[in-house]
Design brief:
CATH topology: Transcriptional Co-activator pc4, Chain A
Order of helices and strands: EEEEEH
Strand order of the largest sheet: 1-2-3-4-5
Length: about 80
């Protein structure tokens, strides 16, 4: 478990990293608990501090139902044909 100021978190399971732009930063999908609450799916960036500990950055936590809805939405979009 990790504590930072007013909150704590524990990564229960890492489901995968999908962006590792720099050696001290990654974007991950995890199952995580925040402040001892029930686990949720969590999509966010992480920074490895000078102390060697991963620190959470901005992200989003969601229920299993929300993650399924997001997966279905992404599958319905023709991302290859989009210009961004």
């Amino acid at each position: 478990m990790n504590d930072t100021r007013d909150f704590s978190w524990e990564v229960v399971k890492n489901l995968g990293n999908f962006s590792e732009g720099r050696e001290n930063y990654s974007k991950e999908l995890n199952i995580i608990t925040w402040n001892g609450r029930p686990p949720v799916f969590d999509l966010r960036g992480w920074r490895i501090g000078k102390d060697g500990i991963k620190h959470p950055l901005k992200g989003i936590s969601m229920s299993k139902e929300d993650l399924i809805a997001l997966r279905n939405l992404l599958q319905s979009i023709d991302i290859e044909s989009m210009e961004v």
